[in-house]
C-type lectin domain-containing protein
Amino acid sequence: MCHKLSLLILAIVVLADILPRTNCAMTVEYNITSSECESPFQSVNNGCYYFSDVQLDFDQAVDFCASLSHGHVNEITLAMLDYDMEEDQAILDKVAMTENIYWLGGKTENGDKWLWLDGREVNPQASFWDLGEPNEGGHNCIIAQKNTATLATATRAYVYDHECTDPLMFICQIGEIKCPPDFIKIGNYCYLQSWTIGLPRLHWQEARDYCKFLSVPVGYHSDLAVLGLQDQQDYNLMSDLWGSSTYAIWIGAYRNTNECYYQWIDGRELPLTSINWYKTSPNCNHLVCLNHWSSFSRTLLDDFVDNPLHFICQMVKEITEFTS
């Protein structure tokens, strides 16, 4: 199933009144997520889809959708079904509201086996096929269109085989996230683990500067990792991030040393209770502006800003910048 792109709003806030020892003056980026799809895509059930208003043959439509991926971490392809029955039907319902014929991302080379562009076999018994389809009449690509053969099916859309060279409209979908070199995909985000690519240990601000300097696709930025830590699923994600590492690792959280208040660099509060702090943490008497995850007990603890540690960078979507 394709995933919706997150829309994030970036605010730059300079933290003042930090004690000299911590050297923690910084910009803080606030990321606010939204469930809306970015133009020209529209939300259909749980996915983001683009219904074209131009006509291309099948191969041209494949190339057009791929061109929309430029500068983004999500692969964009011709729409494929067989992921989720509700989403499949939602797409066909949209098609049924028009008189258009749309390419979908499936084809066959010899008529023996139909494949989606991601390599999955098209289910020949799926309910989205119309009666008698696919009929293997030399038509090697897949379309979706409204069936008007009978009154009973006039408002339904189905899938058919079709000649690949005909110019038709098409549907693109936003697919799975693709991570840049050295980043790994965990959950719905891309992360870079400094110890896996031979980077030296750095102070917290040095680690953050390195993350922010990384080359990432247009429309994204990289920073120290921001974690959820709200439920067991978040902690499972952390275990995946740390893997078998025995390092203590910088992440994107800090404390204003003038008060005992911890927060993530995206602006969310990091509670003093209700999360898995190490037994002696947080120690609000320390001159600190950060937290890291203890690989020994999988707990958070606060530490001095100038301790050199490994770190994790995270790539996130950004839309607008403003200052306050």
